[in-house]
Design a protein that fits this description.
6-stranded parallel beta sheet, 2 domains, 14% strand, Rossmann fold
Length: 198
C-alpha cells in the first residue's frame, strides 16, 4: 500500500488564515493572508514568538479550523487505499491537540508523527518509498520517493529555493490527486505501466 506523509499546518488546514483571524480579533485589525509575508506573523501584527506558539497551542486555534479546499475530497477518495500519515511540527501541547483534532475530524485510523524542535527539517522520519506533501521547501529534505511542495497559489519565503531539485510544485489538491493517479498507473522512473494500481 502506498504511504503518503501529509503536513498539517497550511497544507491540509487553513492555519495561516486561522492565526490571522485570531490576531484580527485580538488587536482589532483587518488583515488577510495577502498581507502575510513572514513566518512569524509580524507582517500581520508585531507579536513575539511565544505569542505565536501560544496561539498555535490554544483551543481558539482549533475551534472552527477549516480544511484546505479539496483536501477532504482527496482524502475520502484514497481512504483505505493509501496509508496516510500526518507528519507535523509543534510544541508538545500543540501536537497533543493537533493529534486529537486529526483523529476527531479526519479519521481515528490516520497515522500521526509529531516532531518537537525549532527547525524545518523532517529528515529524521524514514519516508523511503513514500510520497511527501508539505508547504515548506526545507521540510522536504527527506528520503521520500516523491516530494510535493503545496503552494496554494502563494509564494512565501519558506516556499522558495526548489529550483534544480526533484520537488514537484503544485497549487491544488486536485494536482496532488493527479500525481498519485499517475504514480498508481506508471512506474514514475521508467514510465512503464504497472500491472495494477498501488
Amino acid at each position: 500500500m502506498l504511504t503518503v506523509y501529509l503536513d498539517f499546518d497550511s497544507t491540509i488546514v487553513e492555519s495561516n488564515k486561522q492565526v490571522i483571524n485570531i490576531l484580527n480579533k485580538r488587536y482589532n485589525i483587518r488583515k488577510t493572508e495577502d498581507d502575510l509575508v513572514d513566518y512569524g506573523y509580524n507582517s500581520i501584527f508585531p507579536i513575539s514568538n511565544k505569542e505565536k506558539l501560544d496561539i498555535f497551542a490554544s483551543d481558539e486555534f482549533f475551534v472552527g479550523l477549516e480544511f484546505k479546499k479539496g483536501f477532504i475530497e482527496f482524502f475520502n477518495k484514497y481512504r483505505g487505499v493509501v496509508n496516510f500519515i500526518i507528519s507535523t511540527k509543534g510544541t508538545p501541547e500543540n501536537l497533543h491537540k493537533k493529534e486529537k483534532w486529526v483523529k476527531e475530524n479526519i479519521s481515528p485510523e490516520i497515522g500521526f508523527i509529531g516532531i518537537v524542535n525549532d527547525g524545518f527539517s523532517k529528515s529524521q522520519i524514514d519516508m523511503s518509498g513514500a510520497i511527501q506533501v508539505d508547504d515548506c521547501t526545507q521540510a522536504l529534505d527527506t528520503n521520500a520517493t516523491i516530494k510535493i511542495l503545496y503552494k496554494d497559489f502563494r509564494n512565501y519565503d519558506w516556499q522558495r529555493e526548489y529550483e534544480n531539485t526533484s520537488i514537484l510544485v503544485v497549487n491544488t489538491w486536485k494536482e496532488i490527486e493527479e500525481i498519485i493517479e499517475f504514480y498508481n498507473t506508471y512506474d514514475y522512473k521508467t514510465l512503464v505501466k504497472r500491472n495494477k494500481g498501488v
